Amino acid sequence: MKVLYSYFLLLLSQFSFFAASYHDYAEALSKSILFFEGQRSGYLPADQRLTWRGHSGLGDGWMVGDPIIDHNCWERPEDMDTARTVYKVDAPNPASDVAGETAAALAAASIAFRSSDPGYSETLLRTSTRVFEFADSYRGAYSDNSDIRAGVCPFYCDFDGYQDELLWGAAWLRRASQDDSYLNYLQNNGKTLGADDNINEFGWDNKHAGLNVLVSKEVLESSKYSLQSYRASADSFMCTLIPESSSYHIEFSPGGLIYRPGGSNLQHATTISFLLLVYANYLEKSSQTVNCGEVSITPLKLRQIAQRQVHYILGENPKGMSYMVGYSNVYPQRIHHRGSSIPSTKDHPQTIGCKEGSIYFNSSDPNPNVLVGAIVGGPGEDDEYEDDRADFKKSEPTTYINAPFVGVLAYFVANPNVIKKVFLSLVKEESLSSCTKQGGRGCVIGFVGPPIAHGP
Asked: Which residues constitute the catalytic centre (predicted)?
């Protein structure tokens, strides 16, 4: 009877594990894209789905504003009346970081449009080439220009140098054009521009980890061994995430979230998850693994780490909260977002000025407008999250948190069989862990149950 009872309890525990781990990736993907409709500026299209937003910035260019003034105001984008300052850099002044990143974006976009709009794709590639030539010819950080620095610092300075963006731009131009001159550029400039620095970060200001993963494709799939140092750096980065490796040093919270100090922690979880999936694909296609000294890491292991981060963000965490707004029934209600926290122009047509919005910033009420799909900065090293609008390091959503997560979820949706295999391997590991804790008695390995729903 005791054996039967133990067996029943174990079945329940395995069912609970599966139920807690099921997520509707297609729903999450759709909502992660919807978030960007809340960030639109200009005249909104007729098919705008977040209807609480209105037209804004109609007299502006793009990416404009004064960070000091803007941060001192709490007002809707539809009411913005502060200075919309525009800055530019041209020869002979340097802007290798901004221009290198722009070249990379244009080159990547040319790949995306190649089949659907070849003419536009070619235009993007030509423009990318010219922008990269400017970036490389006048080397330096854009924020080092004296007439710009006061307008962009301390918020948007180049903190980590411009060198990585030059390599990043060259890598994407190589990918888009297959021009060997960019291959030579990566080989000849890698050392001087810091490709060997093993900086284990990928974000808006630092491209090193992403650069190494991207260039590794040339080594793994095309045998370009002159770029082996990039592959070695990519391997080294992966090993920092593996507890069994002697190189392991990236922190995880007690609940399993990748953690790096500095705030907006989920930017690291989403970008690293994206790189894990990309590198796993490169390794699998070339039948390779990552050698971490004592252990050999398979593509499956990298995907497991990525899936755990996804599940944490979507609600499988100590707080039982989805950190994506609008996904599941429990998510942040007081996000640090002006448009979301102030009544919409439809509900409150009168202008709400710069300081008049403070009453909404300081309110303890939930935001009146739900910014569906927004991923907040998230918890820190202790897994705690207080849902406090004033705590911007935890409650502020950003485009650079959401963007890589769109890629992660798109991969999950497009490769259900691969992700199912990853999930079942995690179920098996959890089962084995339960068996070990119970001394191996009454164990059922890999039991799975039906999925559960996650809200509307």
From this structure: 336, 387, 396
Mean pLDDT for 106-121 is: 99
Q: How many domains does the chain have?
A: 1
- Give me the domain span that covers residue 106: 88-150+159-224
336 is catalytic: yes
Residue 258 lies in a domain: no
Does residue 436 lie in a domain region? no
CA gap 190, 276 in Å, rounded: 22
The token pair at 147 is 């007439």
Contact between residue 21 and residue 430 where contact means Cβ atoms under 8 Å apart: no
Please report the pLDDT score of residue 441 as a whole number. Answer: 52
**What number of helices (H) and strands (E) belong to the chain?**
17, 4
- Output the CA–CA distances (angstroms, integers) from residue 323 to 203, 226, 265, 383, in the order listed: 19, 42, 12, 12
The answer to whether the beta carbons of residues 385 and 264 sit under 8 Å apart is no
Choice among 66, 136, 144, 387 that is catalytic? 387
* Bridging pattern class, strands 296-297 and 290-291: antiparallel
Active-site residue, from 208, 268, 311, 336: 336
Options 55, 396, 430, 454, the catalytic residue = 396
Q: What is the pLDDT of residue 5?
A: 46
Q: Which pLDDT tens digit goes with each residue over 197-232?
A: 767 889 999 999 999 999 999 999 999 999 999 999
| CA distances for 280 relative to 54, 238, 287, 413, angstroms | 42, 10, 10, 16
The pTM of this model reads: 0.90
Considering the domain boundaries, does residue 98 fall inside one? yes
